[in-house]
Amino acid sequence: MAAPALLLAALLPALAAAQTRDQMVAEALSAAPATVAVHATVMDWEQNVLREGTNGWTCFPSPPSIGNAPMCFDEPWLEWAHAWMNQQPVAVDRVGVSYMLQGDDGSSNTDPFAEGPTADNHWVVEGPHIMVIVPDVAALEGLPTDPSAGGPYVMWKGTPYAHVMIPVH
After folding, report:
1. What is the per-residue pLDDT across 21-32, written as a single tens digit (0 to 9) for each?
2. Cα gap 21→27, rounded to integer Å
3. Which among 80, 82, 70 is positioned nearest to 25, based on CA atoms?
4. Is 71 exposed, middle or buried (0-12, 13-18, 19+ CB in 10 A)?
5. For the chain, what is the radius of gyration of the CA atoms?
6. pLDDT tens digit string along 84-97?
7. Under 8 Å CB-to-CB from 74, ≥6 apart: which residues?
8. Does 15 map to a domain?
9. CA dist 58 to 99, 125, 132, Å?
10. Helical residues (DSSP H) of 18-129, grouped into ranges
C-alpha cells in the first residue's frame, strides 16, 4: 500500500504542472495589461504558437523550470530573450518593453545565467514589474542597482543583458 502512495506523491508535482492549452494561454496573458494581452500572440517554451496575435506582442506562460513567471515581450524584447536564453550576443536596436505583472519566483540581480540563489549572486524575488531594454547599456549608468531602493533599478549591470526593472507593486 505504501508503494502506490509514494508513486502518487512523486507524480503529483508533474500532474499539477501539466496545463491545458487554454490554461497556458490564460496564464501567459495574465503577464500583460488587458490592452496588450487582448491581441498578443501566445507561445509555449518549445516555440509552438498557442494563439496567433496581431499587435507585435508575444506572451509566454511560466517557464517549466521556474515556477510562477509568465511574461509578455514586444519585438525587441523577444529578440533579446532569445539571445539571453541561448547565451548568445545580444544586439538591441531600439527600446524594448516586457511585462511580468504576475511577478516571478526569483533570479540573480548580478548573474544573467544563475539557476538558483548563492551567497554572492544577489537573488531577488520580484513582484509585478515592467522591464526595459535599451540599445546602449551605457545609457543605464547612474541608475541604482539595488532592488530594495524603492524604484527602478538595473539588473545584470556590467553585462550585455543589463536592463531596467520597474516594480509596479
Report:
1. 999 999 999 999
2. 10
3. 70
4. buried
5. 17
6. 999 999 999 999 99
7. 56, 57, 96, 97, 98
8. no
9. 10, 23, 15
10. 21-29, 34-37, 75-85
Tell me how crowded residue 68 is: count the other CB atoms within 10 A of its CB.
15
Q: In this structure, how many other beta carbons lie within 10 angstroms of the beta carbon of residue 54? A: 9
Nine cell digits for residue 161? 543583458
Tens of pLDDT, residues 69-124: 999 999 999 999 999 999 999 999 999 999 999 999 999 999 999 999 999 999 99
The range of the structural domain enclosing residue 112 comes to 20-167
pLDDT level of residue 11 (50, 70, 90 thresholds):
very low
User: How confident is residue 20, by pLDDT bands cut at 50, 70 and 90?
Assistant: very high
Angle, CA of 66, 69 and 75, to the nearest 5°: 115
Would 10 be classed as within a structural domain? no
Q: Give me the number of domains the chain comprises.
A: 1
- The reply to whether 3 falls in a domain is no
